[in-house]
Amino acid sequence: MAIAAETQPEDQHKAPQEGAGEEKKRWTLNDFDIGKPLGRGKFGHVYLAREKRSNHIVALKVLFKTQLKQSQVEHQLRREVEIQSHLRHSNILRLYGYFYDQKRVYLILEYAAKGELYKELQKCKYFSERRAATYVASLARALIYCHGKHVIHRDIKPENLLVGAQGELKIADFGWSVHTFNRRRTMCGTLDYLPPEMVESVEHDANVDIWSLGVLCYEFLYGVPPFEAKEHSDTYRRIVQVDLKFPPKPIVSSAAKDLISQMLVKDGSQRLPLIKVLEHPWIIQNADPSGVFKG
Ligand code: AMP
């Protein structure tokens, strides 16, 4: 799969600011007490940490510069930091700031106490309609917010979703997101969640996120993504042909299938707009109005 470079934001040398007029703060490792490891990613480790002055609990992501360089993802990381630090939404993981030393880059992230959604889905195999609808509605709201700021996420999938202390979903990974006013051509993300226009590398816009939300909704309800196949080439073909099938088990309501079918439409401009997703009868009947699945 070809991954093309895109335009980069300006390099940032200072930590993103909490608010206008505040004194610029340069963080260092000394500002934090480091706690237990929370997980391990491709480029480093994530630790629970406490900011000493405020006692604020955060997740500190430690990335090794050599590994970032080797994989040529420094620009992608800069873009991720630039975008995520400017987003403020209860269903988007906050990025409070960053700092670095000679060997490492540190990201100061909101702590998502209930961990990865992916693990939860593996444990349950699939979610109830109420749970799935609550998650889909909260993600639709978060994506409406992103699109309003001209940010397309482009990589919505269970692995990129964390769960906060109250059970609220948090979009966590903005590695493939892009700040754009234009239509784009770049191929990125994992094949299973990519819309036809991205696997075919034709121009795409914010409607790609509607497709991915449709794929996610399907996976929440069935436990597997809709176009899964043994070979990449078969997944590719199934996506391009929108080869959408609903298995008989688990039993899923026709209202849920209707919503998925309206999101997984080949022509991006014909997909159900996110605002209409929130008004869909399946969402209205099933999603918890608080936006939090209470179990
Ligand atoms: P990543 O490098 O982002 O893939 O993170 C590696 C793992 O660390 C994840 O799979 C999570 O289990 C955990 N993790 C990352 N960020 C957070 C966070 N903000 N809050 C809680 N756990 C996290």
What does it look like?
With 295 residues, the chain is an alpha+beta fold. The chain folds into two domains: 29-110, 2-Layer Sandwich (Phosphorylase Kinase, domain 1); 115-286, Transferase(Phosphotransferase), domain 1 (Orthogonal Bundle), CATH 1.10.510. The protein has ten helices and nine strands. The protein has helices spanning 65-70, 74-84, 117-124, 129-148, 196-199, 207-222, 232-240, 254-263, 274-279, 281-286, and strands spanning 32-40, 44-51, 57-64, 95-100, 104-110, 151-152, 161-163, 169-171, 178-179. It has a five-stranded antiparallel β-sheet. Strands 6-9 form a two-stranded antiparallel sheet. A hairpin with a 3-residue loop joins β1 (32-40) and β2 (44-51). α4 runs antiparallel to α6 (207-222) and α6 runs antiparallel to α8 (254-263). The longest helix has 20 residues, at 129-148. The radius of gyration is 19 Å and the shape is globular. Adenosine monophosphate binds next to β1 and β5. Pfam families: Pkinase. Belongs to the protein kinase superfamily. Ser/Thr protein kinase family. Aurora subfamily. There is a cross-link at residue 157 (Glycyl lysine isopeptide (Lys-Gly) (interchain with G-Cter in SUMO2)). The active site is at 155 (proton acceptor).
